[in-house]
Task: structure prediction
Amino acid sequence: MAKRAHEQCLDEAEYGAMMRETQARILDRLETARAASRISQRRLAGVIGVNREAMRDRLSGRTQVKAHELAALAAFLQVDISEFFAIGADH
Result:
């Protein structure tokens, strides 16, 4: 059975750490942009077509933000999507 690409480069612990760091950065950037723009969770939910509770779950980290949702949110919040993935960079 062929290994997935991430398994060829990183061991499981490294991959998990990288994913947690990326998820934390995404959530931090979303919350910072949302607060700065004074936009409600309900309004963000409408941007990606979910209800407020589902948006809350995404912002709390209980549910991962999907790539297409992140793209829509970045455009709506007028944030360059690359900011979500600059691991190790300062705010």
The chain has a mean pLDDT of 86. The longest helix spans residues 12-37.
